[in-house]
Amino acid sequence: MTKSLQSEVKEIIVGKVGAARGLDGTLKIIPLTDFEGRFDDLKKISVGGKIFQVESVKHIGGQIFIKFAGVDSRESARALTNKFLTVDREDAAPLDDGEFYIFDVIGCEVFDGDKRLGAVTNVFKTGSNDVFEVDGNILIPALKSAVKSIDIKAKRIVVRGQDSVVS
Known about the structure:
Blueprint lengths: L10 E11 L4 E6 L12 E4 L2 E11 L2 E6 L5 H5 L5 E5 L13 H4 L3 E4 L2 E11 L4 E5 L3 E4 L5 E5 L4 E4 L8
Parallel strand pairs: 7-12
Antiparallel strand pairs: 1-2, 1-6, 2-5, 3-4, 3-6, 4-5, 7-8, 8-9, 9-10, 11-12
């Protein structure tokens, strides 16, 4: 992501097309979402900017495979390999209170009281908790002990003081 504030996100990347599977046009999907179950009820999805109707979704050996209408051969499936799958913002999976999409956090201004520390330029997923990178040189753990408040509409994050910031 870039350092500048990004405009309102209209589409969300949820996956990437992998290799063709079999001869009928079925494709392996590489999920790029924390909500892998979101593929199960898909009726349509954008692949590389083109809308496709979903014929079937299968889970085999922990992997996801999708068959799109009109993609009926291995060759036509290969043409979609490495393209991103996106959904409209309004079709995003709902979040619980206190949860935020990474693309909403990036660009938020970060403050320690009245002092502006910078803007979130990246979010690292560490496994135990996310970490906000601010202007490329400050790291803030996304923990209640470090982050006082997040206001996505105002694009503002308030941290709990310098002891919660790693430079």
